[in-house]
Input
Amino acid sequence: MKEHDVPEEYEVFEVFVQKTQADFHTHVGSIVAPSPDVALMNARENFLRRESGVNLWVVPRQCVTATPYDTDVDWFAREMDRKYREAGGYPENGRLWKMYKERVLHLDEIVEDLHGEKDKRKNESASS
Amino acid sequence: MHGKLVDMVLTNSIDRRALADLLFQLADDELCIGHRDSEWLGLAPDIEEDVAFSSIAQDEVGHATFYYELLAELSDCSADALAFARPANERRNALLTERENGDWAHTIVRHFFYDTFDALRLEALADSEYRPLSEGVAKIRREERYHLLHLHLWFVRLGGAGGEARKRMEFAIDQLWSDVGGLFSWGAWEEELLTKKIIPVSSFELQHRWQERVRPVFAEAGIPWIEDLQQPEKDGRVGEHSPEMDRLLLDLSSVYNLDPAAQW
Output
C-alpha cells in the first residue's frame, strides 16, 4: 500500500451477520475502522465474540442510500384505513379447521355423507 | 481419563518429566502473552480494537487453562496453583512472551512473531503421539487462525503506512529480535520428546519454518529482512528469566496470593 493510499480518517461501517446459511444477513450495528479489511477483522470480535455466525458483511455507511428523516415527512404517510391489506385472519384458520374436523358426526350425517358419495358416482356414470 | 496415554508414553519418570516440561512451555507461553495482552484493556488504539484484542487475550488464557489442566491430571497440583504459585525459575515460557508492553507497534511485532511461532508449533503438535495434546491442539489451532490473520493485518498495515508507524515498527523489531531465537527451544528434554514422538519436529526445523514464513511478511510490509537469529542470552525454556518476569508474576498472582485457599 502506498503512503498516500492510507486513509487519514476512520470510516463508519455497517455490520451484517448471517447466522446460518439459510438466514438473511441481519444488521447488528456499526463499527469504525480505517479500511474494509480492518472493519471485517474487528467486526468478528465485536459482534461474534459470544454469538455464532457463518458470514459477515461490512458496508461503508456512505454507500447506503437512505430515506430522509425530516425533510420529507410524507415519505412514510399512512393516513387512510389499510386494514384490507393486512393478512390478519389467516392464523385463525388452523384452529377453525381442526375444530371442524374434530366435531363428532351424528349417524344421519354419516349416512348422508355415504349417500352423497353414491349419488355423485351415479351422476358421473350417467354423464359418461 | 487419560489412562491410555499413561501406558503409552509415561512408562518411566524421565518421559513423564519431559512431557510435563513441554506442557509447561505451552501453558506458560500462553499465560504470559495473554496477560500482557490483557494489560492493553482500555488502552488499544480504538474501541473496536480494544474489544478484539481483549478477546484474543481471553483466548490465550483459555489455551493456557487447557494446558494447565492437562498438567493437573499428571500431578497433584490444581491448575490454579500451577498457573499462579510457581516461582519464576520454574517457568518455561520464552522471554519474548514476558517482556513488558511497549507501544502498540511493539505489541503487534511481538504478538505476530509469537503467533507465527505458535501456529508452527501447534501444526507440529497436531501429529504428537500424545493424544490428549494432539486432540486439544486441533481445537486451539482453529482459534489461533484468526489471531494470526489479525496480527498479520496489523503488521503489514503499520509497516506499509510509512512515517511514524514504520519508524516505531522498525524500532520494535530491533528491540525484540534478540528474543526470537529463544522461542524455538523445546527445553531440556528435546531428545526424549523427539524419541517418543511427543514432538515430531526439532527446534532447528521449527526455526527454519518460522523464517520461511515471516520473511515474505516483512517483504509485504516493506521492511528489510534480518538474516541472523541470535542465540538468546537467557533461555526461558530452562527457567532463566528477566526481572520483567518477576514483576509480571507479582501482578498476575496478586489476587491469588491474597488467599490461595479461597474458593472462587
Q: What stands out?
A: Residues 25 and 59 of chain A are 12 Å apart (CA to CA). The radius of gyration of chain A is 30 Å. Chain A has two domains: 3-63, 89-128. Confidence is low (pLDDT under 50) at residues 1-6 of chain A.
